[in-house]
Amino acid sequence: MIALLLLVAELGSPLPRVATVDEGRARYMAQCARCHGANGIGDGPDAPLLRNPPADLRRGEILDAFSDEKLAALVRDGKVSRLELRPEAITRQAADTEALYRFIRKLPQIPWKSVDAGAELYFERCTPCHGGYGRPESALPPGVSRRPQDLSDDAFQASVSDRELRWLVRHGRRGMPVVLPRVTEAEAADLIHFVRLLSTGFELYETFCSTCHGLRGEGATGALLATPPLLVTPAPHFAFDASYFRTHTGDEIRQAIWHMLENETPSMPHFAETLSTPEVKSILIYLRSLPRLPTGSPGEHPLDPQGP
């Protein structure tokens, strides 16, 4: 114990660095993920709108080639990427708008107690293969020879019943191993409730909406939204509950989502915040904490047509 205390005293507490990494992740998700993607590989929802594709920060050499001071200067003073309203970009934004609307529309019916229990199981046992939002990384996990199923794919979700998912989770099939330690029937039900949320809309909501609107769409309590180190700004007072959907039409909600995704509405100020040099450096600390990915484009491993 004495030796351990001496080692901690010599190296310094890890807590400040952990806090800095968390701070950088929060800033990255609020300010950078729209272009560079939630995983930093350049696949954010705004990426198709840009004349020049966003850099892949997990495979490229940018983080190794420049100092934090140089990168901070580039981020704060660099050229603004131009947007192009190409037909395919508009199609992508329309698809994201509809995906986000479908997820928000489900919020009042979600059994959150079961979902929370299922999420804990999922992140403990399923993320190494399927990723945090159901989309596997392009790099296969150790010992896996075929790319795992994309659980966020709408076609897959529609093709498999809860009963089949429960069987897969408890007994496995072909490329899908048994979830170990083996889950009980009740745990399998919780896990399925969470898996059913996995979708483009779920990822978009958690990445861009939950900071202000709450993880469950519960909205603010009436106070200012103060989520250090992001911002202090009036937070939305409404909840995405049954009452909200009775007083807002689908077209009104879709229009609000479209404008949010376009970064045109003033009610989403966290997308337009100016970052200071220390704030940019906190993002860089977070990015440097992520494991580097092997070179190669995402999707080079085809989906398993047989499913999990």
Description:
There is one protein chain. Mean pLDDT is 77; it is low at 1-14, 221-232, 264-273 and 297-308. This protein has helices spanning 2-11, 15-31, 33-36, 62-65, 68-77, 87-106, 112-125, 127-130, 154-159, 162-171, 185-195, 200-208, 210-213, 242-247, 250-262, 277-289, and strands at residues 224-226, 232-234. 50% of the residues lie in helices and 2% in strands. It has a two-stranded antiparallel ribbon with strand order 1-2. Among the domains are: 17-82 and 276-289, Cytochrome Bc1 Complex, Chain D, domain 2, CATH 1.10.760.10; 111-196, Orthogonal Bundle (Cytochrome Bc1 Complex, Chain D, domain 2). The chain is an all-alpha fold. The radius of gyration is 21 Å and the shape is globular.
Give the structure's gist in a few sentences:
With 308 residues, the protein is an all-alpha fold. It has helices at 2-11, 15-31, 33-36, 62-65, 68-77, 87-106, 112-125, 127-130, 154-159, 162-171, 185-195, 200-208, 210-213, 242-247, 250-262, 277-289, and strands spanning 224-226, 232-234. Among the domains are: 17-82 and 276-289, Cytochrome c-like domain (Cytochrome Bc1 Complex, Chain D, domain 2, Orthogonal Bundle), CATH 1.10.760; 111-196, Cytochrome Bc1 Complex, Chain D, domain 2, CATH 1.10.760.
